[in-house]
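chain below, 355 aa
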Amino acid sequence: MTIKVLLVEDSKISLVILRRIINEFPQLKVVGEASNGLEALALIPQVKPDVICTDLHMPQMDGLELTTEVMRHNPIPILVLSVSVQQEDTHHIFDVLEAGAVDICPKPLAGLTTENQEFKRELVNKISVISGVRVFKRKRRYSLQHQAVNLNNLTTAPTKSYPKPKIITIGTSTGGPPALQEIFSQLPANFSVPILCVQHICKGFLQGLIDWLAPTCKLPIKIAESGNKPQPGIIYFPPEQRQLKLDKQGNFVCSDTVPLDGHCPSATVTFESVAKVYGKKTTAILLTGMGRDGAKGMLTVTQAGGLTIAQDEATSIIFGMPKEAIELGGAREVLPLNAIAPMLLELLQKQSILQ
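prediction:
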């Protein structure tokens, strides 16, 4: 089955190069080209694309406005292609993801060429993956004022008896930023345990992600530093292209060791390391994402007696990572995205006999 691609790009040279790259692959076909979002909206009913690849900055209607309109009226998987993701306005990229774009693919800083094999592989792989993604009409912006949950007002308890966690770990990939935003926006300022978060993300994006998450999150968000101990009420990300572990004393170890299953950082590496230190007091969460990273790590946490939560299929952009954990037997709970933060808060306020 051929995947039909609509290109939206204001540079004529870039359009030519992208068309040549995509049409090299028999499973892909460029069915339309537009120089801005307005032209793209007019083309969509004619060419009926499976995937839209759009630049971020364009005249008349940019990539954010285009994504907003597509997701409001005729949801189609969108891949954002822009050199801007490697510059100072990465915040705008995460706005596009929040609006409903599925993924991002940075253009090479040196410029597009048909000889750049690494870019070709990444582009074609991302188009192929997101072509099968179900996208939905979108979506409110998150409001910190309305989303935060008061820990003292909770009256319900989890349906099963789990240990009260001392640390929470999260792994996610494609679709992760908006999912993290939903969870973090519900956590109150008195959240009492540290959170370690592994997000697969292109080099140069991490600080932009943190800056984008911060306005809707009452908790401070930091990049972990080797030798420091995770502190309650702080969200930590590993440094870019570093594995995040804990040593026997519970201090961070941020290393540039080889990727696990192609990932550095890897959710499995972090989950397994934390489970060795915290055992049954570990809670591990696996959110939307492509591939199987985190599944083995979730199983390790489960075997240590900790709570493991997989995001359900209905609310996942890509169900790959949670599905792998579920099939491996590593997920003790499978929850929709909006139920994950409330369960964490219930666990932290309860008086468990397992503490």
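The two ends are 54 Å apart (CA to CA). The domain at 144-349 is CATH 3.40.50.180 (Rossmann fold).
thats it, cya
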